[in-house]
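We include this case.
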Amino acid sequence: MSTFQIASREMKLGFRNPWAYSFMALFSLFMVSLLLINSQGYVQGYSGITGTTLNLILYLLPLMSLLLGSFSLTSEKEDGGWELLSTYPLSTRAFIVGKFMGLAVVLLIIVAAGFGVAGSAGAAAGSGFDAEAFMLLLAFSACIALFFLSIAMLIGTLAKNRWQALTIGVAVWFFLIIGWPPLLVASLGFLPYSFIKPSITILTFLNPAELSRLFTVVKLGGGAILGPEYYEWITWIRRPSGTFGFLAIGVLWIGSVVLLAEMLWERGRSRG
């Protein structure tokens, strides 16, 4: 079996999964609800509405990606699907990458559906986000989904069953989304001033949610709210090469995590 056959199989299973439609309905409802908050015409650039949207996307979409991705792998272990697939001439890389690709399509369709419903409702009501803000928020959501799907692949490899995947996934979500800001502020408070900027840079690269949020806020024109510690970030992102640099970092980040998941799965496979 090839990578694309696994991806096709995963897409079929994904769209048969009631969880996928539940998440799609929830995300669409969430996006339409934001239109009710803003009934004063189209929003441009960074504002309270776009900031609220970014935060709410960060609360919902990473958890969706973590659960769908990790459950997909752990279900293969529990239901015996992997035992059947391993009888075919299937490499671990084809299996993991195919899983990632198939689930990525499912998640991106969920995101597109949510934004499509919101965009259509906004166009009919004459409110919502202008084209540039809408596309940046859509790109932000897609990046968040792919980043956390790669983490879900790693969680699914480590977890033995769905309950373990659920526990680890919620813990990772809480740490990277809810606990990150206070932990960041608390930890930086113990460092000398000269170490603050390089520490922020390293920690930002380690958290894909913060990296994506920072990039989107600057692109929306809200870099001034980030503070002087992020001046070099703002300068870099605003350059013409900033977008390509962010995409390169994203591909490297996702590829590294998926590769680690593949290595751990292969190690478990060799041990039987």
User: Anything to note?
Assistant: The longest strand covers residues 42-43.
